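Fig. S4 source data, part A: sequence.
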Amino acid sequence: MQGSSYYIPAAAMGVALAFKTPSLVRAWTDPLMRAVCSLLALAGLVFFFAAPPTIGEVNRLTGVANFSAPLVYSLLSAFSASCLVLIVNWRGGPAEEIRRTSRRWCVGFSVLIVALVTLFVLGDAPVERLRDLDTYYATTPYIREMIVLYLMGITMSGVMMNYLCLRWALQVHGWLRVGLLIIVVGYSFNTLYAIAKFAAVFARWGGANWDGLSTNTAPILASCGAQVSAVGFCLPLVCQRLADSWHTWATYRQLGPLWRELNKVSPRDARSVRIPWWSSAELSLTRRESDIHDGLLALHPYFDPEVHSRAHAAALAAGADPEQAQAVADAAMVTTAVRARAADPEGVVVDSARDAEPAATEGTRDLVRISLVLRQPPHTAAAPGHAARPESEVHERMR
């Protein structure tokens, strides 16, 4: 593999981390956010420092032949720990248990990193090897143990990741399960990477030469595993965000008929609260819901509980379920109030003594159901005798 094969994924991880940094600053106390950012940072560092050109440059700058070996192995170990910590925090559970488990993984891999550095210092690796250090020094005292130890750490991490993800996948559904199964596939590549490395090292111990497994095959397996695992981590988050956005925009559109009906009361105010078309789905929905609540509040003096009762009874008699009957009754009362408000251009406040019942139920109204009723004209057919009172009757009530 050439340097670009390492630098491109390193750059991708850096870009992803840059996008996540503002969220990390805002939610520094969130363990899951810290775990995600740590994983992205360590993954980028692993790819960057594992590139042969970087290995040679680091060795040159430090003046120590093969200084990059314990550096890259330590970064790989830290990355393995970050993956396990991320899964533990992502899965959730009691906060104390999550902290305890995360601390255990961090401490365990920290000890591993200290052991790797110590073994490198004790060993003797004077000849610089950019791509085949594992097999070239497979029989060198202390360096040999360092190589085996880091491979054992990677293998244990892969097995634990697959175990945790498979166990969690059996408990969930949807895109989360798909993502977890993809992560399992990705870490299976990582396990194959460790197996290829072990096979090449063991072959050296037996006097054979299987260096190609370590030098050529293993890096390809590691790259495939990293990319597949990244898809597994990202897929549930992206799909959930798309699903949430779709649901939000669907709700926004469904509220359209009710929003437009209430605009008849104060169209100028409705125009003044419009927000840019490029606003987020959540902001657009919040604005529309706010407009609707403001419109209902403005209509409140004109709500007639008799209209509501007649429409509700008629809907039940027509076979509607209780929730649908409530929505039909609310829609009838709203449209009647809109007409009554239009018949009162002076805006004289109607006596609200009879409005106690609508006020009590307003908080429980299902705005989407009401809006969907308004979408199906004639939406007040189930309310006999509900038609808006003529302007003279409205003024008569206001005397």
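Fig. S4 source data, part B ends here. The first helix runs from residue 3 to 26.
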